[in-house]
Amino acid sequence: MAKAALVTGGSSGIGLAIARMLRSEGCGLTLAARNRERLEGAAGELDAHAVVADVAKEDDCKRIVAEHGARFDRLDVLVNSAGVGAGARIEDIETKHWDLQLDVNLRGAFLVTRFALPLLKQSHGLVVNISSIAGEIAAPGLSAYGAAKAGLISLTRSLNAEHADDGIRATAICPGFVDTPMAAWTGMASEEMIQPDDCAEVVRLLLRLSPRARIPQVVVERLGS
Ligand code: NAD
Hints:
This protein has 6 helices and 7 strands. The protein is globular and about 50 Å long. Strands 3-2-1-4-5-6-7 form a 7-stranded parallel β-sheet, with helices on both faces. It is of the alpha/beta class. The longest helix is centred in the middle third of the chain and has 29 residues, at 95-123. The chain starts with a strand and ends in a 5-residue tail after the last strand. Helix 1 (13-24) packs across helix 6, helix 3 runs parallel beside helix 4 (95-123) and helix 4 (95-123) runs parallel beside helix 5 (143-163). Nicotinamide-adenine-dinucleotide (NAD) binds at residues 8-9, 11-15, 33-35, 53-56, 81-85, 104-105, 130, 132, 175, 177-178, 180-183.
């Protein structure tokens, strides 16, 4: 039976690039994201199952995995790419903006992964968490985002520590600015940024590894300051 993958945030940017790559590798796909129109557009292009969901809600995380399981009955690759960013310094950040970034970027990835573990165990699956270089290097105004992304790197390590015996491998990808709608605020030209396909190629490499090889973290730096 063909392999199957689930990509949160699969309607746009990095998640969509990874979803396209996974499709080209022959995977059946479930894409989950918030915006129905964009999600259905991406799912139509990739012949994927679409689940409109908010990963900040536990019930939605459960439903994403349940719908994927009902459709494919296996999960070989889980990509947690759903994410949001809202810049503000520690002394100014609104509590609701802190909570949203932690809820979507960290708690959502935790919940989807936890619900997916039974399927991942069966397939000796791969978990790819899209973290950020902001989880490694502090930048003014990115306290909540950086904390969530550092937490995601730590969650990735914990997954590897707890589930190696199940044959599950997890990788945190930590890119600098990537040319997606999320980075539009920077005003940078597309060619100055990392491309979403660069992240997809990192995941393709992970798919090629033999079962006992694991890469826990990949930092993708952007040339330039
Ligand atoms: P994007 O805005 O193009 O895509 C974000 C995706 O996440 C969309 O599909 C959106 O629907 C989904 N999403 C957001 N909130 C959601 C929620 N509550 N529930 C379900 N889905 C939700 O941005 P992107 O750059 O592709 O971001 C993908 C991931 O990459 C994010 O986790 C982001 O933090 C990370 N990242 C981005 C950059 C960058 O510069 N673009 C750099 C490093 C890491």
